[in-house]
Amino acid sequence: MASRKRSFEQSFDLVLQSASERETEPDALSDTDSSSEGEVDSRSDFSVEDSSSSDEEVTHEAHHAGGERPTHSQPARLSGHGGHAHGARQVPFAQYAADVYNWVAPAMVQPVIPPFSGEPGCKANTDGFLPVDFFNLFVDDEFFYGMVQQTNLYAAQFLRKHDGNLRPRSRALQWSPTSVAEMKTFWGLSLLMGIVRKPSIALYWCTDPSLATPFFPAVMSRNRYLVLQRMLHFSDNSAALPRNDPNYDKLFKIRPFLEHFTRRFSGVYVPGQHISIEESLVLYQGRLLFKQYVPSKRAQHGIKVYVLCESNTGYAYSMRVYAGKYCNINPPGSPAYLGVREKIVWDLCSSLFNKGHHLYVDKFYTGIPLFKELHSLGTLACGTIHSNQKGFPKQLVCKKLDKGACAALRCEEVLAVKYCDRRDVHMLSTIHDESTAIVAARGHAEQVSKPKCILDYNRYMVGVDRTDQLLEPYHPACKSRRWYKKLAIHIMHVATCNAYVVYRTAAPEHKMSFLQFENAVANALVQVHVEAAPIGALETVARLNERHFGEYNPPTPNQTQPYRRCKVCTKQGKRRDTRFYCPQCPSKPALCQCPCFALYHTKEKYWEIE
Question: What's the pTM value of the predicted model, to 2 decimals?
Answer without folding.
Answer: 0.74
